[in-house]
Amino acid sequence: MIRQTITIVLLWGLTSCGGSGGVGPRPGGAGISFLGALYVDPVKGIDSSDRGLDEERPLRTITFALGTPGRRVIVLSDGVYSASSGESLPVRIPAGVIVVGRDFMRNESSIPLVQGCGAVSSTSLRAAVLLDDGGSFQFAGATCAGGIGIVASGTSHDFFINNAVFASSTIGVLIQGNGTISASAAMDNTLDGIYLQEGSASSLFDNVVLRNGVGLLMERGARATFINRAGTTGMAAQRNVECDVRLLGDTEVMLYGTVWDDPDTEFSVSPQCAGGANVTVEGLGSVVFGATASATIQAFEVPGFIDLVSPTNSVLSSTTTPDLEWSPQGSKLSAVAIFSKLPVVGAAGIQNTEDIVWFWNSGLGGGASGRLTYARGRLPVTGDLNNLSAASPLLAGRTYYWISWEWNEADGRVVASSPIGVFRTRP
Predict the structure, then answer these.
(1) Which of 64, 200, 240, 249 has the smallest number of CB atoms closer than 10 Å to its CB?
(2) Given this model, what pLDDT does residue 376 score?
């Protein structure tokens, strides 16, 4: 059994973490009453056809409520819903039915929890909850030691999970179709917090993936949208043992604004899911993280505008040694730089030169026409643009930023600048 007090107090603190507008489950629940709802209490309830229509005379099991004709909303009191309380596992929530907790986290220590494992028909999977296409599971938790907390499928009507906790299982939630998971927490699962199978396409908003083996795993062909209506991702991916996000496929994953263990300046993308890496890209995909860049606003606020020709914004480069092309404005002195993090430019110039991974200036030759081969560039040593060494290829599966600028030989003032270009690399 999940140690509920410890778990929920921790999640209470996570609901207000910065950078994402508040991620994870939020205290609340189903409210006082639902018209036509069936009420369930695993301690006080009795499974009988003349009960369940009000809080004072609840049913005992979700299983019995689901078998009641015309049920659409099933409201759960806090407590453990398991085989010992009479449940038939996995609890299967069909299309059009909402299972929702009534007093979720109001006392910071208890939630409605479906606990235990049951065989998912015609498969080798074992789960606590099976969420069918169009079913909904809200303000409640699910755990299956040695199995899966929730198996969610959906194609035409989609499943919906909101303010839920799936913890202390082998896999927190296995997504087999299309649907939405929002304001929820996948934590302390031994393998994966959230697992998206091949062909699934889901929206994942404002969730916490915490202390799992792998926080979020996406198979080849799986797609996920993290940017919610407010324009933020709201995901907190932290303290996962092997890696926070594991991308096996060939999709581009947008993770703008995600809260990580490490700040953007220390963010890592690795080819291997081990050692607590932030993101691993093990296929032909790529990941976009950190802040966005405007395609029209110049890096330096100067009159001359330099257009970046190639690689252009949102291009997925098929090489880790890309050639560069831009439209020079004709100044004698010019430079181009590729950054691993978003360039920060102030009155004194570039503020984060330590993030420059490739640099060229007109003194190195070969770029007068606005075209450069990657081999022409150099690597600044500890961010010193006057101390250059041989440049290495870029890393596959990463987002990079680049800018070009020109300056006046007489006074050193920047007279022309490009916007910040963004491109991604793959093998």
Answers:
(1) 249
(2) 94
- pLDDT given for residue 360 in this prediction: 96
Distance (Å, rounded) from C-alpha 101 to C-alpha 72? 14
What was the pLDDT predicted at 377? 95
In this structure, is the dihedral angle defined by the CA atoms of residues 43, 45, 47 and 52, taken in order, positive or negative? negative
- Kindly give, in sequence order, each residue whose CB lies less than 8 Å from that of residue 42, ignoring residues fewer than 6 positions away: 60, 61, 77, 79, 80, 81, 82, 85, 86
Q: Are 27 and 105 in contact (CB under 8 A)?
A: yes
Give 415: exposed, middle or buried? Use CB within 10 Å, 0-12, 13-18, 19+: middle
- The pairing of strands 91-93 and 98-101 is unpaired
Is-contact 297 419, C-beta < 8 A?
Answer: yes
All structural domains of the chain with their residue ranges: 4-289, 304-425
The H helix count followed by the E strand count for the chain is 2, 40
Place of tokens 């405007």: 294
How far apart (Å, rounded) are the C-alpha atoms in residues 80 and 112? 6
Beta bridge partners of 255: 289
Residue 154 tokens, joined: 């959906």
Residue 271: cis peptide before it, omega within 30 degrees of 0? no
Residue 314 CB neighbours (<10 A): 12
Please give the span between the terminal C-alpha atoms of the chain, in angstroms, as a whole number: 45
What is the pLDDT at residue 45? 96
Query: Would you list the DSSP string of 350-393?
Result: ES-GGGEEEEEEGGG-S-TTSEE-GGG-EEEETTEEEEEEEPPP
pLDDT at 315: 57
> What is residue 31's predicted lDDT score, i.e. its pLDDT?
55
Share of the chain above pLDDT 90, in %: 56
H/E segment holding residue 14: helix 4-14
DSSP states along 282-349: -SS-EEEES----SSSBSS--SEE-EEEESPTTEEES-SS--EEEE----SEEEEEEESS---EETTE
Q: For the chain, which residues score pLDDT lower than 70?
A: 1-22, 29-34, 105-109, 228-234, 256-257, 262-268, 288-295, 313-318, 397, 426-427
Bridge partners for 178 per DSSP? 201
- The class level of CATH for 304-425 reads mainly beta
**Mean residue pLDDT across the chain:** 85
